[in-house]
Amino acid sequence: MGLDEPPKRTVKTAETIFGIVEFLLENGGSGVKEIAESREMAESTVHSHLATLQDQEYVVKDGTTYRLSLKFLDHGIRARDELPLSSAARPVIEALSKDTGEVAWIVVEEHGRAVYLMRNSGEKAVQTRGRVGRRTTMHDIATGKAILAHLPEP
């Protein structure tokens, strides 16, 4: 932390919950023991957090395995649709992909990362590895580099 930066005020419980969510995102369905070992937590603590996430419908339990629920999909779609850019960009990428026959993407910067916001495919479109919602480093894709070129210096 630099001299000009205020101290971080975070909530440990929230960090723990989101750590579990990120683990499930990266590893797919997992059991309490696997999560506890990876997060260096007691199994009882992990179980309590998973029970909370399940009660709030953020995870689904199948036998002894937990996975993220589709509630996250709903949140992601709503977050995207609430951006003013979404409604303005939709007809533009539809026209662009129709005119070129190729894939048209809308990519935005958020928290220093490139996020694939929207996609539309033309008739001659070549499949790419991108998917809506994917987050990557800005310098990893051409669109990210173009965005970086127009951002103010840090």
Q: What does this 3D model show about the protein?
A:
The protein has 154 residues and is an alpha+beta fold. The protein folds into two domains: 12-69, Arc Repressor Mutant, subunit A (Orthogonal Bundle); 74-149, GAF domain (Beta-Lactamase), CATH 3.30.450.40. It is built from six helices and five strands; from the N terminus they run αααββααβββα. It has helices at 12-27, 32-39, 43-55, 71-82, 84-100, 142-149, and strands at 59-62, 65-68, 103-110, 113-121, 135-137. A hairpin with a 2-residue loop joins strand 3 (103-110) and strand 4. The longest helix has 17 residues, at 84-100. The chain is globular and about 55 Å long. The protein starts with 11 loop residues before the first helix and ends in a 5-residue tail after the last helix. The mean pLDDT is 92.
